[in-house]
Design brief:
The protein has 11 helices and 2 strands, in the order H-H-H-H-H-H-H-E-E-H-H-H-H. By secondary structure, the protein is mainly α.
């Protein structure tokens, strides 16, 4: 037995290719009149099945559309509303102003009513409840017993949108607590340092510096006295949602009330110390005013 091997470009390959082309050209072709399609289309039974299928598809499309509209109507505000604007109004008024409230105010500003911790709690609970509701949605929806829609991707995206709202509220509380305590600590540091100056008689610049610090502490007295308990309540509120603040915040809440009381005591001491110097300066001003009046009279 002899085996013939052909390589690309050899006469043997060319003969094989020519034979394949000839076989293709001689293969029978299917003419349109030989097709079964016209016969199938003419069958009444298949036409009825086709119509039934079209009706079922239309029914499913309608059901899916209604379901989509229901989901959109219930949850669309979560991704359509402006969260930043909502927070701005919530921090000013405790809620988003209604058209009636804006109309009633007219050209006047609506009086601000900042939210309480309880209002923050209600808002956070509202969005957490919506998140739980979304978690309870079915992973699949079946329409007309045969068309199934996988809704897990929609659920995950919707849950993420809901959590953005509740996170916005808790993030603000965290930021507010941290910034308030940091500002207060910096204020106490600055005023304690400023009140270490002990102005002598005739040292007008030092007296002015001390008086400036005394006035600054006095202007902050009422608001600072009232801030510690609300801040502690805010930390407790965050803890209820398993959100822990930093160790620094806990340290500040523990130490700053004492430091603030110490600063108030220092201001009382310094007020008594500079009182005679302040009286001397007042007397000097009176003498200068009298001298000025005398010169003008002459």
């Amino acid at each position: 037995t002899t085996t013939t091997t052909t390589t690309p470009g050899t006469p043997g390959v060319k003969r094989a290719a020519a034979a394949a082309d000839a076989a293709k050209s001689s293969a029978p072709t299917t003419r349109p009149e030989d097709s079964y399609l016209p016969q199938l289309e003419a069958m009444n039974e298949l036409q009825e099945l086709r119509q039934e299928l079209a009706i079922k598809v239309a029914s499913v499309e309608e059901g899916v559309g209604q379901h989509r509209e229901a989901m959109w109507g219930e949850y669309a505000y979560l991704w359509k509303d402006d969260r930043a604007e909502f927070l701005r109004q919530f921090l000013l008024y405790g809620h988003v102003l209604t058209a009636e409230e804006v109309e009633a105010a007219g050209d006047n500003e609506v009086p601000p009513t900042p939210p309480t911790d309880e209002q923050f709690r209600e808002a956070i609970d509202k969005y957490n409840k919506i998140a739980d509701q979304v978690d309870g949605l079915r992973d699949t929806e079946v329409f007309d017993q045969w068309f199934r829609v996988d809704t897990r991707g929609f659920k995950a995206s919707l849950h993420s949108e809901v959590k953005k709202w509740s996170h916005m509220m808790t993030e603000h509380l965290q930021r507010h607590t941290t910034e308030t305590l940091d500002q207060l600590e910096a204020f106490i540091d600055l005023r304690q340092k400023g009140l270490q100056t002990n102005p002598g008689e005739g040292d007008y610049a030092a007296l002015v510096e001390v008086m400036g610090n005394l006035n600054a502490v006095e202007s902050q007295r009422a608001s600072t006295d009232a801030c510690f308990e609300p801040l502690k309540a805010t930390v407790a509120l965050l803890s209820a949602y398993h959100i822990e603040v930093s160790d620094k915040v806990h340290r500040q809440l523990d130490k700053l009330p004492t430091r603030w009381n110490d600063l108030k005591k220092l201001t009382e001491t310094m007020t008594h110390q500079v009182a005679p110097l302040q009286a001397d300066e007042v007397a000097k001003l009176k003498r200068r005013c009298n001298q000025f009046d005398v010169r003008n009279y002459e």
